[in-house]
Automatic annotation (TrEMBL):
GO terms for molecular function: ATP binding; mevalonate kinase activity. The lineage of its organism: Bacteria, Deltaproteobacteria, Bradymonadales, Microvenatoraceae, Microvenator. Keywords: ATP-binding, Cytoplasm, Kinase, Lipid biosynthesis, Lipid metabolism, Magnesium, Nucleotide-binding, Transferase. Residues 82-137 form the GHMP kinase N-terminal domain. Pathway: Isoprenoid biosynthesis; isopentenyl diphosphate biosynthesis via mevalonate pathway; isopentenyl diphosphate from (R)-mevalonate: step 1/3. It comes from Microvenator marinus. This is GHMP kinase N-terminal domain-containing protein.
């Protein structure tokens, strides 16, 4: 049985679609898939996942025969009936491909799964979620000229770039569920409509620069610099929402931001924002137990997730 982790964006949202760098981390909730010995039909546990995505991913051999043997478990991406924004379709693409072709390297899995996922999404998205699922850990990610959307910020590379990183050792991260599954497509669409406006482009450029600074903080194991980058990224996403009319920052996040500051922590939306996940970061010695316990007073809750998770280092409790 294969496993593909979900993801959370830390920095670089929106700007990554235009050639900027993104900082993305894999988490220990993921999708499992296997090819059974029987041919009793395609099975999905946890939620609906229609056959269109698996058919695109199963790009070799007898697709019909493989589909009849395929089982996919997406239940880890749900809390009750609530779908968590951890990149379920991207992780499903990776898990299905790894189950069907276990001999592939992570780079080969990413290349094939990214192509299939893009076709399934009608060309939308950056592919950073697929990369996080394929490689695991924490990565910096930058689109190639082929995929970056116009107008570009700077000059994107000829090939998509994925570099492994480690989060600063002294930082702890907590994922806070805002309570509302956001539509990344809708939010990105609002930004895209105004991307030619000079003020919007300037904000996207600043988001890209902040992400680059955050990547440098990871390289240098600099916890304070990464916290500074996250704080700046939060403010820039607020500005981008104001400029485009996209509800990137919800009221719940604003309350979380103020509450986190009381503990010396920083908060920032993850991904497109809009009420999905926010991340909170701070020194490991902070009053985390009290912080997490008091989140309920805001109507929020922390979702236990391991940041920087790598399937290669799965412990027995995560093994199939």
């Amino acid at each position: 049985m294969s496993f593909a982790p979900g993801k959370l964006f830390l920095l670089g949202e929106y700007a990554v679609l235009h050639g900027g760098i993104a900082l993305v981390t894999a988490v220990d909730r993921g999708i499992r898939a296997e090819l059974r010995s029987d041919r009793d039909g395609y099975r999905v546990a946890g939620a609906d996942l229609d056959q269109k995505l698996p058919i695109r991913v199963l790009d070799h051999g007898d697709r019909a025969e493989l589909l009849q043997r395929l089982s996919v478990d997406v239940s880890a991406f749900f809390e009750g009936k609530t779908k968590l924004g951890l990149g379920s379709s991207a992780a499903s693409s990776v898990a299905i491909l790894k189950a069907a072709r276990p001999e592939l390297s992570a780079a080969e899995v990413f290349r094939i799964a990214d192509r299939a996922h893009r076709e399934h999404q009608a060309g939308r998205g950056s592919g950073a979620d697929v990369a996080a699922s394929a490689f695991g850990g924490t990565i910096s990610y930058r689109l190639s000229v082929r995929w970056a959307q116009h107008p570009w910020i700077g000059t994107p590379p000829q090939e998509t770039q994925v570099e492994p990183l480690k989060l600063p050792a002294d930082l702890r991260f907590v994922a806070v569920w805002m309570g509302d599954a956001a539509s990344s497509t809708e939010l990105s669409g609002k930004v895209a409509k105004l991307v030619l406006h000079e003020d919007v482009r300037a904000t996207l450029s600043s988001i890209a620069s902040t992400a680059s600074y955050g990547v440098g903080a990871c390289v240098n194991d600099d916890a304070q610099s990464l916290m500074d980058a996250l704080s700046s990224g939060d403010a820039l996403m607020e500005r981008l929402g104001e400029q485009t009319g996209a509800p990137i920052i919800c009221e719940g996040h604003r309350a979380l931001r103020e509450f986190a500051a009381e503990f010396g922590l920083v908060a920032k939306p993850s991904g497109a924002g809009g009420g999905d996940f926010s991340i909170v970061a701070g020194p490991k010695h902070s009053r985390w137990l009290r912080f997490c316990a008091d989140l309920a007073d805001l109507g929020l809750r922390a979702i236990p997730l391991e940041f920087g998770y790598s399937p290669d280092s799965e412990s027995e409790e995560h093994s199939p």
